[in-house]
Amino acid sequence: MRAVVVHGAGDLRVEERPDPVARDGEVVVAMEWGGVCGSDLSYWKNGASGTAVLRDPLVLGHEVAGRVVASGPGVTGWEPGTPVTVHPAQAADGSVLPARLAGRTNLHSQVRYFGSAAFHPHTDGGFSELRAVPAHQLRRLPDGVSTEQGALAEPLAVALHAVHRAGDVRGRDVLVNGAGPIGCLVVAAAKHAGAASVVAADLSASSLAVAKELGADRVLDIGSGDQLPEDCELVFEASGAPAALGGVLRATARGGTLVQVGNLPGTAAPAALGDLVTREITWVGAYRFVEEISDALVALRDGLDVSAVVTHRFDIEQAAEALAAAAGPDSSKVLINLSGG
Description:
- This protein is α/β, with parallel strands linked by helices.
- It has helices at 38-46, 147-150, 153-165, 181-192, 205-213, 245-251, 274-278, 292-301, 319-326, and strands at 2-8, 11-16, 26-35, 48-49, 52-53, 58-59, 63-71, 83-86, 89-91, 111-113, 130-134, 138-140, 173-177, 197-202, 218-221, 232-237, 252-260, 282-285, 310-315, 333-337.
- The chain is globular, with a radius of gyration of 20 Å.
- Belongs to the zinc-containing alcohol dehydrogenase family.
């Protein structure tokens, strides 16, 4: 089978690997679509993503969907041809969460994630024609949800989790700062959850055009001189840029809530944070998701259309072009056709 493998910074290859065999508790999936994420780009560009550093070649990809091929011993209920997506996380340390974190499985201290070098041996991702997946990580696609849509369930789950962290958004006015793929999906998720209005802000006109298609009532082009609004009760910060935090905090109303969904750097960075205190802002983190991937599939089944977030599609042999496009200024979500069709 073919797989998209990063060997080091700037070294991406589409190479042949042995076909996987389903072991106890596993299901082999013929992957059809995969979405390129920022972590995939970071491994490709830097040979690392955050503190996770490549030590061996790694198959990229955690936003994937395909169809069941075969089941291993002890697995029932997954007929060949069943369309599925994958919950890419599983706890790696066997620990039990304390009562205060009950159900918040994204907060286990050690989590193995598809396409991650956080552990050694690394955890290969799903950018391959075939992948053996633990059956408990599979999620069946509802009728009417294609595998291309299924590949968007993981990033949509991130957005839905961020919206859940904000509490009840029904009837509320929302600001989303940062209109990359996750920010645009937060726009869609907030509208789906009943937000009265959503304003999206970014430096890129093309990104804002996607946000508009996904439901933003108004867009602000900061790169062209637009200013963030004042007194926003509920703000989602999706850019992950420390330099943006001062302005975003100032835009948040006194006593308002700011949900941080954009990944901030793990190293020291200057940021103006004074308004966090003087405006008594509630600043909430949003990390990955718990079971919102199932919520995402329900939303897609019920008609939530996020297809506008996809700006480019490439075949598996064009993986290098796909990542280059995803890193460029004029893309949102880039998909790779993993089936070779």
